[in-house]
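Run log, item B.
One chain of 115 residues. Sequence copied directly from the ordering sheet:
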Amino acid sequence: MSDSAEPLPPLLDEAVLNQVAAYLPAAMLETNLHRLAELAEALLGLLSPGGACVVEQVHRLAGSSGMLGFRRLAAACLRFEAACSPAFPAKAAARAELRAVLEATLPEITCRLSG
């Protein structure tokens, strides 16, 4: 997590998701939410402590989650991407943050699929 006192973005920005839902057919939105859940679940499985840096998967998840309004997940993905730089000393902390945000966000994605 960031050392600054910035508030965390919400898990889900309802306004963003509602805007997307207004333009996409319901079936396409559901497909995108399923893909987001699959990406998140797959990445969660790869984020074991000391595991490889999975920048490409994290980058895809950052874009997908941000587009659908899952702002906290997108922000955590971006911090993790930055942490994979050799100049960034806190890779383990960024990995732990991303894992925690994934675990918090997956139920919210699933809820959107059920509703």
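Observations after the first pass:
- The mean pLDDT is 86.
- The chain has one domain: 14-114.
Flagged for discussion on Thursday.
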